[in-house]
Write a structure and sequence with these properties.
It catalyses: N(2)-formyl-N(1)-(5-phospho-beta-D-ribosyl)glycinamide + L-glutamine + ATP + H2O = 2-formamido-N(1)-(5-O-phospho-beta-D-ribosyl)acetamidine + L-glutamate + ADP + phosphate + H(+). Helices cover about 35% and strands about 30% of the residues. The protein has a single domain, classed as 2-Layer Sandwich (Mth169, Chain: A). A 3-stranded antiparallel sheet has the order 2-1-3, with helices on one face. The N and C termini lie close together (about 10 Å). It is an alpha+beta fold.
Length: about 80
């Protein structure tokens, strides 16, 4: 079984209030010089081989359901499983 990961992040020009809150909390805790943008991670278990066709299906699913492409970008990648 293989794992495909879809990472979804707000587009650079979109405000990220959650990331801003985490950045502020880190600074208050003494972690200066760090800036956070918060997103989502989806792990998809795939039975069998991850083919180009299967990756295309996952890309389509990410575009239609997992990400709001008006305000978010996404990346699809295969992750090694142990």
């Amino acid at each position: 079984m293989a794992r495909v990961v879809v990472d979804v992040m707000p587009k650079a020009e979109i405000l990220d209030p959650q990331g801003k809150a985490v950045t502020g909390a880190l600074q208050r805790l003494g972690f200066a010089g760090l800036a956070v943008r918060q997103g989502k991670r989806f792990e998809i278990e795939v039975d069998g081989e991850v083919t180009d066709e299967r990756l295309g299906q996952i890309h389509d699913a990410a575009e239609k359901l997992l990400a709001n492409t008006v305000i978010e970008d996404f990346a699809v990648r295969v992750e090694e499983t142990a």
